[in-house]
Amino acid sequence: MRFWSLVGVVTLLTAGETLAFKAHDFKTCSQSGFCRRGRALSARAKEAKSSWVSPYSVEPSSVSISANQAVFSAAVKSSLYPEINFGLEVRIHDDGVARVRMDEVGGLRKRYDEAASWALIAEPTISKDVKWTTGKKDTRAVYGQKKEIEVVVQHQPLRISLLRNGKEQIVLNGEGLLHMEHFRNKVEATTTEQPEPVEGEGAEGEESSEKAEEQVVLKAENPRAWFEGDTEDALFEETFSSWTDSKPKGPESLSIDIDFPNHGVVYGIPQHATRLALPSTTGKDPTFDDPYRLYNSDVFEYLASSPVSLYGSIPLMHAHSTESTVAVFHVVGSDTWIDVSHESDKSTQTHWISESGILDTFLLPGPTAEDVFKQYTRLTGTSVMPAHWSLGYHQCRWNYVSSEDVRTVQQRFDEEDMPVDVFWLDIEYAEDHKYFMWKDKNFPDPVEMTNDVAANVIVDPHLKRNDDYPAFKQASDLGILVKPPSGQGEYEGWCWPGSSSWTDFFNPASWDWWINIFKPNAVEGRWTWTKSTTDIHIWNDMNEPSVFNGPEISMPRDNIHYGGWEHRDVHNINGMLFSNLTYQAVAARTDPPQRPFVLTRAFYAGSQRFGAMWTGDNLGTWEHMAVGIKMVLANNLGGFSFAGSDVGGFFGNPEPEMLVRWYQVGAFAPFFRAHAHIDTKRREPFLLDEPYKGIVKNILRLRYTLLSVWYTAFRETSVTGMPILRPQFIMFPKDKAGFTIDDQYYIGSSGLLVKPVTEKGAIDAKVYLAEDQVYYDYLTNFAYRGSSKGKEITVPAALHQLPLFLRGGSILATRERPRRASSLMHHDPFTLKVALSQAGTARGELYLDDGVSYDHTKGYFIWREFSAAKSGKKGVRITSKDLGKTKPAEAVDGVSLASYDPSNKFVQSVADVRVEKVVVLGLAGKPSSVKVEGQNEELVWEYVPGVAASEKKDGNASVLVIKDPRVLVKDDWAIVIQ
Ligand SMILES: *[C@@H]1O[C@H](CO)[C@@H](O)[C@H](O)[C@H]1NC(C)=O
Ligand SMILES: *[C@@H]1O[C@H](CO)[C@@H](O)[C@H](O)[C@H]1NC(C)=O
């Protein structure tokens, strides 16, 4: 299908858009010593073909299996360095996940081995159901319900594979690219020959001047040279642009190939601006020249199609085929480059090259995407239930300049009846960019202002170096700032406030300090943020960390953190600790705690536990609008569903048409915020002319009518780990045509399918339906019938239209009353939209709680199931049932309730909330009666004939509207249509 092969192709920059992305600020692989070495290794392996053999092998005599059978351990040697020892361990968890760890043992120094301790929520439970057997050539574990999974550790050369039913799913070191560079002392050079330019090194590589490196020419016949190359390349010192990295520990990189035989597509490893199904970076027909990179970076005006690293890193990769989904979670906190190649459409090869850290890789056996998400979130946690208001619309700008300004903007939203939940103040609220310190002249009344207007503020991790700034002074006195390479004193770099230092959140002494700062009442006589309220929520930006005058706009890698670890070891984890602590600080302001909202730019595996993220400083272009959708989808696959991109684009002045389309994109992302750069024109939606203004107002209102749908989707992800946004391959894992589709997606289990339009001048759009099912246009009730062979439909998509569908078989609970903010909706009645399937059935859920406290973890919530089933000859029976009662243990947020009280405190607080309308789509004919079961009274209803769900044709669906059935949301009831 030609059309689908074009889907998701992101065009390059348009003519008007200058190449403002500063490529020279960031390393390419060829400018990074360890990446160069890793890629050169793979080039030599490719050249040597079948004669290439990994020098690593298991010492058979050292193999030992723990008494409980779940842990394999063994000594590993590299034939190149017989004097160096490595330890390998493979453990099988109770959910079938296999964890592979390898480290140098008794080395000169210690490799960083704490990445998992920050990412994981708990030490995983070891399986009791594994049997290891050691043979001559290998040691293998067999497990699974039908003993269908096998983990095989081949001894020589070392090769680790995971099989299901005898078929290989994941293979480590199958290509022999494993290389854990051992610690060594610098040997004074014996020769000083210049290195040959290594594979892949272009002109830009040369200007980066690695010439200072000691070069030891090794003999060609030397097997070390055969494996590692002829010359030592950037092992002990490395220069990039004007920066020199002292690399006091010398080389310690880690290279490993991870292959997915029998899996033709891979997804994940956010964050990159590219297609969801990751294009190749090497092998045949690569789309990109460089590997994907994970190195949290503040990339100015990033490209809309590129493998460069962006603000966050989640080293989780899914591999998919019509038969299974599997994944690897490669827990490393250092700079990591990942090559992807698809030698055939049936398998995928990847090569991971990290600067430091131990090998700590989790093999997630699936076999379904649901299983993979469960396995992954059992390791790193699920997204938590957000504060309900945070699913509303966020209005942001750099900057609303004064209290007056914010109040006026809020007033204008109210005058136009445009819903909005919160306003964000960017860095200019703070005097000299000293966060917590209001610019008094412009914000003379911060407490009153934040009480009047729901205003939230930014707090960045850099602290202005000024003794008059209490946050800096306290951190400096406590000795909790990141240290320079000498390990003495305070690292000083340049950021918004000028000369700045950074708190070292790896230092436990920083934790209570940071949590206390946010308290509106002074703690033990210390300065805290007294000019604040417990309603202010926080946006953490620049936490990659961004350092304007540092290498790659970040911190020098040889900076020192707590425990003596270098910044290089923890770089990608750093931003997560900041949002973790801010999240705790915001929660701790009240007793009992209220659900915090923390927005973060940098992230790592596990960041989903601490709030939301956005895709950073995008551009106001169609290309960025389109790729933002893919980036948010990729983030959802990375376990971090609460994601969105800046509506309108951060940079530029989008024309009205683009802005409208961008609102349509934003309204269908879990996190919905408009934001703009300081140099842009004001573009709040009320400033638009008609018809644009009216269209945006309708989009905002549509978002608010669907808030309970989003909230219900969050409940599900908080328990199952299933992403909120679901691309085709998750919904239809066997439909190959859907594997590369990344511009349409489903929202949770709601049955909503959306295809945002991201093309200028569009009047229609193509949507792919993978199944023989009816899809109802959400706004017009037009019924489209899909096909089990897959079918592309063309739907109207002029500016005021939006390709949004309700899948047959779904019941949606919406709140249709226009309100100015979500907080005003708690007692609003519901409308149920019953979209009958071709089989005449439907199902949906509604989850509600108070949206602010943690009472839901005590069982204070409503969780209902609505179903529609055939009743009698042509009748339908719609029922409401209490899921809290039937499945209390699976209800919410990682708590396993033993029981649930259907008349709990929350239920009582919304006892009066009723269903005000029921709309049934696709009935086969006009009913003769509609009644609440057990009551004689005929309900008030209206029927418009049209296409029935069972009919295999397109057309306006039949619509039955039942007005005010007088049933309550909290009750069990049935409505019978005869
Ligand atoms: C981060 O969050 C988790 C809870 O998810 C917590 O257990 C941990 O102690 C937190 N702190 C740090 C510094 O990571
Ligand atoms: C379908 O409904 C639309 C209104 O949504 C109407 O304009 C159109 O005439 C209807 N078509 C038919 C065939 O009834």
UniProtKB/TrEMBL annotation:
<dbReference type="InterPro" id="IPR011013">
    <property type="entry name" value="Gal_mutarotase_sf_dom"/>
</dbReference>
<dbReference type="InterPro" id="IPR017853">
    <property type="entry name" value="GH"/>
</dbReference>
<dbReference type="GO" id="GO:0005975">
    <property type="term" value="P:carbohydrate metabolic process"/>
</dbReference>
<feature type="compositionally biased region" description="Acidic residues">
    <location>
        <begin position="196"/>
        <end position="207"/>
    </location>
</feature>
<keyword id="KW-0732">Signal</keyword>
<feature type="signal peptide">
    <location>
        <begin position="1"/>
        <end position="20"/>
    </location>
</feature>
<feature type="domain" description="Glycoside hydrolase family 31 TIM barrel">
    <location>
        <begin position="384"/>
        <end position="713"/>
    </location>
</feature>
<dbReference type="GO" id="GO:0017177">
    <property type="term" value="C:glucosidase II complex"/>
</dbReference>
<feature type="region of interest" description="Disordered">
    <location>
        <begin position="187"/>
        <end position="213"/>
    </location>
</feature>
<dbReference type="InterPro" id="IPR025887">
    <property type="entry name" value="Glyco_hydro_31_N_dom"/>
</dbReference>
<dbReference type="GO" id="GO:0030246">
    <property type="term" value="F:carbohydrate binding"/>
</dbReference>
<dbReference type="GO" id="GO:0006491">
    <property type="term" value="P:N-glycan processing"/>
</dbReference>
<comment type="similarity">
    <text>Belongs to the glycosyl hydrolase 31 family.</text>
</comment>
<keyword id="KW-0325">Glycoprotein</keyword>
<dbReference type="InterPro" id="IPR000322">
    <property type="entry name" value="Glyco_hydro_31_TIM"/>
</dbReference>
<keyword id="KW-0378">Hydrolase</keyword>
<comment type="pathway">
    <text>Glycan metabolism; N-glycan metabolism.</text>
</comment>
<dbReference type="GO" id="GO:0090599">
    <property type="term" value="F:alpha-glucosidase activity"/>
</dbReference>
<keyword id="KW-0256">Endoplasmic reticulum</keyword>
<feature type="domain" description="Glycoside hydrolase family 31 N-terminal">
    <location>
        <begin position="88"/>
        <end position="339"/>
    </location>
</feature>
<feature type="domain" description="Glycosyl hydrolase family 31 C-terminal">
    <location>
        <begin position="721"/>
        <end position="812"/>
    </location>
</feature>
<protein>
    <recommendedName>
        <fullName>Glucosidase II subunit alpha</fullName>
    </recommendedName>
</protein>
<dbReference type="Pfam" id="PF21365">
    <property type="entry name" value="Glyco_hydro_31_3rd"/>
</dbReference>
<dbReference type="InterPro" id="IPR048395">
    <property type="entry name" value="Glyco_hydro_31_C"/>
</dbReference>
<keyword id="KW-0326">Glycosidase</keyword>
<dbReference type="InterPro" id="IPR013780">
    <property type="entry name" value="Glyco_hydro_b"/>
</dbReference>
<dbReference type="Pfam" id="PF13802">
    <property type="entry name" value="Gal_mutarotas_2"/>
</dbReference>
<dbReference type="Pfam" id="PF01055">
    <property type="entry name" value="Glyco_hydro_31_2nd"/>
</dbReference>
